[in-house]
Amino acid sequence: MKINKRVRYEIISIILIFLVGGFIQTYLFCDNCSRDWDLFMKNALVAGFVWTSLWKGSEISFDVLDRWIDWLEAPLKRLFVSLASMVLVVIVGFWGSYLLVLSGIYGTPLDQALEYISAKETIPPIIITFAINSFMHGRGFLLSWRADAVKYEKLKTEQIATQFNSLRNQVNPHFLFNSLNALSSLVYDDQDKAVEFIRKLSQVYRYVLDTKDKEVVTLEEEMDFLNSYIYLQKIRFDESLVININLESNVMHHFVVPISLQMLLENAIKHNIISESKKLTIDIFHDEEYLYVSNNLQEKIHKDSTGIGLENIKSRYEYFSTKEVIVEKTDKVFKVGIPIVKSQ
Length: 344
Fold this sequence. Notes:
66% of the residues lie in helices and 10% in strands. It contains ten helices and seven strands. The chain has a five-stranded mixed sheet, with helices on one face. A two-stranded antiparallel sheet has the order 1-3. The longest helix is centred in the middle third of the chain and has 52 residues. The radius of gyration is 33 Å and the shape is rod-shaped.
């Protein structure tokens, strides 16, 4: 039977810790062991169990804490729990090993086993265990801080790419042609509406530029921008585009990634047929944890979708929320849910 590489590593490390820790401690701190082989082996066996339990117990407690409490999210809580875990590992590992070997293996009465544990033998492994634990937990903090810094830089890169792509999409020939075409019609038909169209168009550009350095914005800010974008699209598609917004006021102070809702609307408009006979209906709503953008599915036959926009949104939300972006597609509906960020 082939042993897993990880299991083989653990077995080898346990054997080395047991032998090296047990024999070295016995050689250095047992005065009478050099003249009594049975006493030497007895002490080496006890010390080996002690070192193995302390070392591996420290590793296990560190791994559990690393998954349970993040250094950067709750540093004080992690510090106190780490100190408590070190004390627990020392008490259980040290005393448990002595009692296991002396009482369990050698049959020594419990009171004699307790008397056998001297301060001279107790202090060295305790000091070294605390030193090792302090190193491991300190190293864990530094690695968490470094990983967060790398993640932050990745977010900034994603954010810059999003702002650039969004701005580029707004000034691409199709967008300009459609906007100017709609504007030219309004100039002759309704000058007041043409002025409003220009104002909304400028707001779209201004928001893209104003949020280029922001990681998150309030939903209220995003919706102000989105309403300007919707106005432009409604001028273009008129009654063929139906957008229903159902958002309660109590979510407006929460946060979203800038331009994320606009990108989802843009994807729905870009990849679906919109006509008088095939109206596109887009619904924007929420629950306790997510904002949703849903549309009836009537996909164009020839699509130029690369999926970059949706992947970009997913990548940016990884930094702000433990919840994943939801993407659901059926024969009739395409829906995307983005997490509501409840603290900045």
